[in-house]
Amino acid sequence: MSKVFRSRIHTSLADENLQAALDANAERRLKVRKEAFASLPEPEDKRRHAHEIRKQVIEHLDEYLEQFTSRARQNGMIIHQAVDAEQAISIIVEIASKQQAELIAKSKTMVSEEIGLNHALGELGLEVVETDLGEYIVQLRGEPPSHIITPAVHLRRADVSRLFEEKLGLPYTEDIGKMTDAARRKLRQVFLNADIGISGVNFGVAETGTICLVTNEGNGRMVTTIPRVHIALMGIERIVPTLDDLSLMLSLLPRSATGQKLSVYTSLINGPRRGEDPDGPVERHIVLIDNGRRSTRNSGLQEILYCIRCGACLNACPVFREIGGHAYVSREGKSSPYPGPIGSVVSPALFGQLQFGHLARASSLCGACREACPVDIDLPKLLLRVRAGMHTGENPASRKPNAPKPLGSGLRLFTLAATSPRLFTIAQRLAGFAGSLLSPLYKGDYWIRLPKISGWGYSKDFPSPAKQSFRSRYFDTQQKVGEINRTSHLGQDPMASQETQQEILRIPTLMGAERFAAELTALGGIFIDCKPEQVAQEVIQVLKSKGINQLLAWNETCLPPGVLKGLVDAGVEVSYPEAATLEPNSLIIAGLTGASIGIAETGSIVVTGSAGRPLSASLLPEVHIALLWEKDMVENLEQALHNEEIKRLPASVIISGPSRTADIEMTLTIGVHGPGELVVICIREK
Amino acid sequence: MADTIQLFITCIIDTFYPEVGEAVVSVLQKAGVHVSFPPGQTCCGQPAFNAGLRREARKMAMQTICAFEDYPGPVVIPSGSCASMLRHSYAEIFQDDPEWQHRAADLAKRSYELSEFLVDVLGITDLGASFAGKLTYHSSCHLLRGLGVDRQPRALLTKVRNAEFIELPDTADCCGFGGVFSVEHAEISTAMLKRKLKNIDTSGASIVVSCDAGCVTNINGGLHRVGMNQRAVHIAEVLDQE
């Protein structure tokens, strides 16, 4: 047992502020996750299927990686391979120095925490700014994230407000909206001035070479759209074979992570800006990072690589709920970027059993983590393998359990006794005798007060062993136990009449545009439907209601005919966001775009970027108005991902409602980096 | 002649709670089966397995397999976690040993947790038990998530006459036992147990029923230390009340 770990545990348990934050996190996250899964048909089948897909990928990892990298190269991505943290950092440093970069905007990537990127780049004099609100907060505080999804989960609003007061000069406020707005303003300048954007990768699709990134605030879109160079950091295990598989994973990841059917922004990126494209980075790099993954793949801990980093096991874990993410430290007190059940396996697997193996012992093996895992990773089994030292060597003889010495010795002695029923019986008699000897000390009480150091005595009393064990009483009285003649029920159908009526799944009756409208509205978006000739009128209405007279818009050839003309005729100032005019345009508060597809099931729209269709028009303004033809409506994500444009164009995004965050006290705040308002005008031809 | 089951009493009940063991026998007899007690049994090996001591766990598993191999018929275990050990963990222990894996699988196939056996195999939910008081039920982790057993003990408890059944808030939350965890990480275990005790208090029940003597020991140890009057009991004790 690590002393530092023990002391962190004590600190966490005594920290009332942290305890309140962790309780709120667990309660809220478990509730929304449950609600989100209620809307998913056959969730158990999907979970098993997802497990099989991840298993397939990890077992054939090199083949899939080969397919992924060759497709991505064809798409114009620059691929780098890093075996460890050091190499990954030097690759990134080289790109940065070639670009003469000074400012780097970063969206949340756990693998960058893993390789210590911010620290390394900072040492070289580069300014790296975290742009996820939670990450931004912990960066300002100079501490690591405490949760893989909600980095500032350990803080209350007052902590954040005092921090912003000190670092940003924001007057103290309890209003989370005001704090978010302050961060938005500050970070907007970072996005616009950054030389490089660094992001993580949620999934890499082998068949198309696409990288997929899910975010809610819009910072992930910013760093992959605005700076002229984008570097995506990707753990080599993040592969899914096909877009269909991606669709399955996307039905599970946001539900498990934040209780959403889809995250607000699902970015699908194939390559850098091409010829006539109005925006997007001119260079996109993917850095594939091994850092212990291949050796984990060849160990008994292979299954941990199935993880899709949703954080559900952290939220479900009763131990995480007590101690929080910062308590998960190495023997030397170094924080692991991956806390909770997943971290207690990943950390020893990637960073060494010796430093992190003790974390796996801090689990009651209750199985809540496995139950919450969307890809059904048998976490208790893996925690037990870490305890058994199964990652320490190929040779079973060299594997050493990491049990504390007294416990190991005690259990070896117990095993010696318990592998002989005779010795076991004697040991029971001795225990019973010892119990009766101790009994007078406790005034004949049945309960023994063991010393604190025993562990058990810390907070619990211990029952006296029985003077006569069950087996001894059983054999003594065996003759006296008469046989009761009753009809045997053996052989009956075990399940007959015992099944309780399964709760019938509520099947949504709405379909198409009606379903879309309901889902979008539930996300806080606005749905308007109209005839083709009324589109300009509807847009003007929206603008008027908000007192807006300026608009950032797609090229008129990319919008329904006559719309732009109608707007201009009505006196709306329309501009087209070219690279050179991006910055001044960021002051324009409304953007008008088309939408390639509507997804009824989640109320999402797919927006693709290409010539005449700048993605920034759907990202920079505060109000995003999207024009969607009803004929482009599909029922679900899987159908949407079959769209050819998504495979062909450099970048697309699936937008599900207005930009949002819940990084401060899990309080939902709308409008972070992306638009705070989303209006979808659905055009019906009949 | 009734069918015979092999009772695996588990080391905790054997050593600490012989009266619970006798209640298990009585309940099984009321359910119409003949109870046999293979004498070679000791402990399933879970403490060593949970501590990471695979070699010792393997010895214990072999001991247990041998103890039951010559005794045909269902093996009934009044513990969710020991039953889960036999059903799932033996396969893990013998993953590189096909011969023992096969023998372990043979045992796993005929092993049942007590309430699971009564309800699913025998089809019995009413054992004629009667208990005047307020009962609540703690879902033990390995029983619930390891074996998927939940409706069975509930079905048995709701048939207990004169008893008022109350749902325990957050019943599926771990009580903080976790075997060696409770001594290695006493501080965390304590924090988890505190929540359980609070929920027991909130429920208003006087008796907390569990299908695992480990949870019973943990919860009672905590209740006694803080001076609460509620008690945790093994399900067999309730089902044996007349």
Short synopsis of the structure:
The complex is a heterodimer of chains A (686) and B (242). Chain A has 686 residues and is of the alpha/beta class.
Shape assignment of chain B: globular
The largest pleated sheet of chain A is described as: 8 strands, mixed
Taken as a percent bin, the fraction of beta residues of chain B is 5-15%
Counted up, domains of chain B total 2
What is the third-level CATH name, the topology of the largest domain in chain A?
Answer: Rossmann fold
Spatial gap, N to C terminus of chain B: 25 Å
Mean pLDDT of chain A: 90
The total of helices of chain A stands at: 28
Shape of chain A: elongated
Strand order of the largest sheet of chain A: 8-5-6-9-21-18-17-20
Provide the gyration radius of chain A in Å: 29 Å
Number of strands of chain A: 24
Strand count, sense and barrel status of the largest sheet of chain B are: 4 strands, parallel
Our count of helices of chain B gives 13
* Category by helix and strand content of chain B: alpha/beta
Report on the architecture of this protein.
By secondary structure, chain A is of the alpha/beta class. Chain A folds into 4 domains: 1-38 and 300-393, Fumarate Reductase Iron-sulfur Protein, Chain B, domain 2 (Orthogonal Bundle), CATH 1.10.1060; 74-293, Rossmann fold (3-Layer(aba) Sandwich); 426-466, no CATH class; 512-683, 3-Layer(aba) Sandwich (Rossmann fold). In chain A, 41% of the residues lie in helices and 15% in strands. Chain A is built from 28 helices and 24 strands. In chain A, the strands form 5 sheets. An 8-stranded mixed sheet of chain A has the order 8-5-6-9-21-18-17-20. In chain A, helix 2 (16-38) packs across helix 12 (243-258) and helix 16 (340-351) packs across helix 19. Residues 481-508 of chain A have low confidence and may be disordered. Chain B has 242 residues and is α/β, with parallel strands linked by helices. Chain B has 2 domains: 4-119, no CATH class; 125-239, Rossmann fold, CATH 3.40.50. Chain B contains 13 helices and 8 strands. Chain B has helices at 11-16, 18-30, 46-51, 54-69, 80-93, 98-109, 114-121, 141-146, 151-158, 181-184, 186-203, 213-226, 235-239; strands spanning 4-7, 34-36, 75-77, 111-113, 130-137, 161-166, 207-210, 231-234. In chain B, the strands form 2 sheets. In chain B, strands 2-1-3-4 form a 4-stranded parallel sheet, with helices on both faces. A 4-stranded parallel sheet of chain B has the order 6-5-7-8, sandwiched between helices. The longest helix of chain B is centred in the last third of the chain and has 18 residues, at 186-203. The model of chain B has no long low-confidence stretch (mean pLDDT 96). At the A-B interface, helix 1, helix 15, helix 18, helix 19 and helix 20 of A face helix 1, helix 2, helix 3, helix 4 and helix 7 of B.
